[in-house]
Amino acid sequence: MVSSSSSSSTSDNSDNSMLPHLLQVQTEPAAPTVVHGINIQSRVMLVLNFNDANYVTCARSFSAIFGQYGLRDHVDGTPAKGDNDWVQNDCAIMSWFYTRISPELLSMVSGDADTAYSLWRGVRNLFRDNKDTRAVYLGAEFRNFYQGNLPVLDYCSKMKVMADRLAGLGAPVNDKDLIYNIVRGLNPRLHHAIPHITLRRRLPSFLKTRSMLQVEEHRIAESEKMQATAGWSLKPQPLAPPRAVRLLQHLRLHIFRLRLRSSPTPPRTRTRRRALAPGNSRPRFLLPRPLVDARSSLPPMPRKRRRRARLPPRLHCRASGPP
């Protein structure tokens, strides 16, 4: 009995090391009426599960409530007192756990003879079992994590969550290591901001570092937006041809039309028949197809009809002598 109590107290002491010093001070327990009136969903926003790995955050939230209402002895292995107030408060804590623990996780730790301490210890053992091995793998992930395309806020939050998980596994990460790991995995766009953080006489805190990186990220985004807008408005437009080039084009078109009008224009059918007739290897005139198309776009010109010269009527009388 003594060994079990000593082992439980040892594990509880290791669990208490992650809590602030003031939360480890034992306070007077609150009345059951006060404890039953606590809305735990408004005090602990998270639901504990394996996927989110939010054990450290939930443990800190519950520990703050235990310290506020003097309920620390219900989860630290202190022997049960057995009076009515103690039992009512213990049942209230169990109802909190049933509400804030996911069903999959609750099915692993709950039983018929549940107490607040048995549920708390079962959840802690699930998340801290083989903590040395898990700390090694999590530490490797923490030191090889890069920002990539993540925003600064999400990147820093993920790094902070991994640091908290390492602290829960008995391998705490101080602020200095956390900040150096954050600047190590930054996106290359933010590399110019690293000297402003690391070359200071006093290294900034985690919150200050995150704020500085967020401001720089916002500045870069606004600068890229302005450059994109300026590049669209200043895009070079196709220039019109010079006046001399336009005049030369009009002159060529005018000469082309004059040649078409002055050239002999036999009917198209006769021209093609002469070109295809046997023995007529050299047609008199054959327009290529592009010129025919260009000619068809011009207005038709009136065709001049040839008129024969009318001779005076012949005189059928003989010429007479001089009068």
Low-confidence stretches: 1-11, 17-23, 271-275, 291-295
**Average pLDDT, all residues:** 76
Rg is 49 Å
Percent in strands: under 5%
* Overall strand count: 0
How many helical elements? Answer: 15
> What class would the helix/strand composition place it in?
mainly alpha
Q: How much helix is in the residues?
A: 55-70%
Oligomer: single chain
Spell the H/E element sequence.
Answer: HHHHHHHHHHHHHHH
Terminus-to-terminus distance: 180 Å
Largest sheet: none
Shape descriptor: elongated
Briefly summarize what is shown.
This protein is an all-alpha fold and 323 residues long. It is built from 15 helices and no strands. It is elongated, with a radius of gyration of 49 Å.
Give an overview in words.
With about 325 residues, the chain is mainly alpha-helical. Among the domains are: about 1-130, no CATH class; about 130-225. Helices cover about 60% and strands about 0% of the residues. The termini are far apart.
Q: Which descriptors would you attach to this protein?
A:
single chain, 323 residues, mainly alpha, 15 helices, disordered N terminus
Write the layout of secondary structure elements.
Blueprint: H1 2-16, H2 32-36, H3 40-43, H4 55-69, H5 84-100, H6 103-109, H7 116-128, H8 131-143, H9 152-168, H10 175-184, H11 194-198, H12 206-233, H13 243-262, H14 268-276, H15 289-296
Helix pairs in contact: 6-7, 8-9
